[in-house]
Amino acid sequence: MQDFDTLAIRAGIERSQFNEHSEAMYLTSSFVFDSAAQAAARFSGEEEGYVYARFTNPTVTAMQDRLAALEGAEACIATASGMAAILALVMALLKSGDHVVASQGLFGSTQQLFGNIFSKFGIETTFVPAADVAAYEAAIRPQTRLIFVETPSNPLTELVDIAAVAEVAHRHEVLLAVDNCFCTPALQRPLELGADVVIHSATKYLDGQGRVLGGAVVGNKVLMDEVFRFLRTAGPTLSPFNAWVILKGLETLRLRMEAQSASALALAEWLEGQPWVSRVYYPGLPSHPQHALALRQQRMGGAIVSFDVVGGREAAWRLIDATRLISITANLGDTKSTITHPASTTHGRISPEARAAMGVSEGLIRVAVGLESIDDLKTDLARGLG
Ligand SMILES: *Cc1c(COP(=O)(O)O)cnc(C)c1O
Predict the structure, then answer these.
(1) Dmax over Cα atoms in the chain, in whole Å?
(2) Cβ-based neighbours of 17, under 8 Å, separated by 6 or more
(3) Residue 139 and residue 149 in contact, taking contact as beta carbons nearer than 8 Å
(4) What is the pLDDT of residue 386?
(5) 367: phi then psi, degrees, rounded to nearest 5
(6) pLDDT at 238
(7) Rounded to the nearest whole angstrom, what is the distance from the C-alpha of residue 84 to the centroid of ligand 1?
(8) ∠324-250-28 over CA atoms, to 5°?
């Protein structure tokens, strides 16, 4: 087994007859057969090979193989977006009457998908506090098939103890899926900690440059065969163009994650010393309530820093509006730093009372730290104070 850095550059390469050095991009929707007999054999699955790009495409296969290698997994199924990955997971492995336990504070669309959409088809979800291992076990019913978590959470960087929740899941013969969007395999490898499935929004750090949408489900061959059967029929497939962009993004993943995490830590430490900041949320800080767990299950703190400013919404908006460098956008995972006010954007549809109970205050700001100079980022954040 090669090292992560080698796999990130070399895994998944299968050269064509032209022996190209950089990975080729196969923009084709279908594939030609030598004969009617071969077409029949490909369709029946008797002979392995490409048929139609809704099922598989060589560029998508390359990206899947590379990401599987980086997560230390047997297999990966790429999807059109991160949400499509979660849809494919649940449609492939669950059925009406099944029950899910999920961590509170999931990505907004994920919360909607479990809470409002799967429930229409008879798959019910119970949400439990992310850090409370006993709550996952207490919520398990005879019909429970899946525990779904995200760690660290957005925007408050709460952690789920993956190994402890995996132990609970397996004692009850339930699968554990971890959305590894925020850490990526460069910083956290959930399968090694006992998870069964890893979910990715490749739109974020895997591409890393804000160019394309993509997603992936990663796990063992048996489970991924099930996910593939859903995908090839239902069609939330990743385009070969996007797969190629993500494939190339993976080559620099560790370097970007380490540099962005190092900047995030420096920024978090600086913010903690500012009189206009009342609290900083960052797993890499010793003040984080789960710092010991972060050191155990993540290589670094990640690139998301949130903080409460003194003065509530007015002060938060003033700080955001004064920035000239950092992009005001809810997206994250880019080399360009972004800033957002969760209470009025990503969490704006939640009632003020529920928001306060979650800990998303009116003065909360989230910064997804990119690759710009840390000094320029500090200057930009302090601009609104004059
Ligand atoms: C963005 C995001 C998703 C959804 O991914 P898309 O590619 O936008 O569909 C899922 N989970 C997390 C944690 C995310 O940040």
Answers:
(1) 76
(2) none
(3) no
(4) 53
(5) -115, 125
(6) 98
(7) 9
(8) 105
Secondary structure (3-state) at 371:
coil
Could you tell which of 90, 107, 111, 156 is best to mutate to test the pocket of ligand 1, judged by most ligand atoms within 8 Å of the CB?
107
The CB of 155 under 6 Å from ligand 1? The reply is no
Using CA atoms, how far apart are residues 175 and 107, in angstroms rounded to an integer? Answer: 20
CB 159 within 8 A of CB 177: no
Q: Where are the domains of the chain?
A: 4-250, 254-382
The torsion defined by the Cα of 355, 356, 359 and 360, in degrees rounded to 10, comes to 50
Number of residues written out for the chain? 386
For residue 320, the SS3 value is helix
The pair of structure tokens assigned to 62 is 């390359």
What pLDDT does 384 receive?
A: 77
Report phi then psi at 128, rounded to 5: -125, 155
Tokens 């899941």 found at: 169
Q: Is 151 in the pocket of ligand 1 (CB under 6 A)?
A: no
Among residues 215, 222, 220, 219, the alpha carbon closest in space to that of 200 is found at 215
Cis peptide before 142 (omega within 30 of 0): no
CA 309 to chain centre: 27
The per-residue pLDDT for 346 is 86
Report the distance separating Cα 47 and Cα 31, nearest Å: 14
Contact between 265 and 286 under an 8 Å Cβ cutoff? The reply is no
How far apart are alpha carbons 296 and 288 in whole angstroms? 14
Class of the domain covering 4-250? alpha beta
**Residue 172 amino acid letter:** H
Q: Is 181 in the pocket of ligand 1 (CB under 6 A)?
A: yes
Q: Is the CB of 114 under 6 A from ligand 1?
A: no
Alpha-carbon span 248 to 241, nearest angstrom? 11
pTM for the complete prediction?
0.95
Q: Is 103 in the pocket of ligand 1 (CB under 6 A)?
A: no
CATH 3.90.1150.10 fits 254-382, yes or no: yes
What is the C-alpha to C-alpha distance for residues 183 and 69, in angstroms, rounded to an integer? 16
Mean pLDDT by 10 residues, the chain (386 residues): 92 94 95 95 91 95 98 98 98 98 91 94 96 97 98 94 98 98 98 98 97 98 98 97 98 98 97 95 97 97 96 95 94 95 88 85 96 96 80
| Structure token digits, residue 186 | 């460069």
